[in-house]
Amino acid sequence: MKKLISLFLLPFFLQAQRPVENANKQMFNEVFANRNQYLLALDKASVIGSYPLGVSEQKTVHVLFPSEIKEIDVGNQNVIVQVTEAFNNVLRVKANARGTFKETNVTVICKDGKLYSFLANYQDNPEVINLSIGYNQTADERISKELGINFHHQKVLDENDESFTEIQDLSERALDKRNYISNVGVYTMKVTALLRGIYTKGDNLYYQVEVKNRSEIDYRIDFAKVFISDISEIKRVAVQEEEVPVKYHLPTDKNIPSNTDKMYVFVVPVKAISASKQVDFEIFEEKGARHLRFTISHKLIQKAKQL
Prior knowledge:
single chain, alpha+beta, Immunoglobulin-like, six-stranded mixed β-sheet, five-stranded antiparallel β-sheet, 19 strands, 38% strand, disordered N terminus
């Protein structure tokens, strides 16, 4: 009796199994046919733009960078590059042979952690032979926004540094800290920069700086620079200065509207200084002359608080 029931139900069981088998087979075929379906798409906003660069054998193109050149990569042997001996922030670029060649790329990473990309093509008579990248920042930002791509001045962190997320978190923590330093800063043309605190964590110092704009014109920060100066050399004509790169700043918005105040945190690598040296902190105004520079003594650096 059981065998009869089994034989009777078998066709229905097989029929019920077919849709599952067919579904599994279809799924397998879809996965196999589309092997890259799990690749993440490149968002347009993550793309860093490139500069066009015309080069020839007869003319040398010079590119001036805002900071010391640390690393260069060239796509192929058709383009040769060289950092000038006297100034390590100037790059010479030239074609390696007469005649056209396929487009190639040149990538430059500077000491301040910024990456610059160029697309090089052969030109018998290059239209541009001297280029200053630092003065192109406003156009870079505007054109990048129009294209929907990333503004190229994004920090490249060294493998020995903390992660970018960690630096962001520590900067936010430093930004919320209570002020404990007073009477250290500078005032010029109704704009004031005041050092409010110095904090340390790992290999970095976090400078808490308040910018007060009492003028009727908005103040927009272009960039900040930190130098270590030898006090014993100040009275001489040539002052010995060593630039220390600013890795990151928070908030990222650089605009201080008229009659407003804004607190910033600037992240700088730790650099031990002796009694004969001091730190010079400088903030540059974008398209303006209201540059702010003030001095931080070595004794004040030693009072940096742990985050």
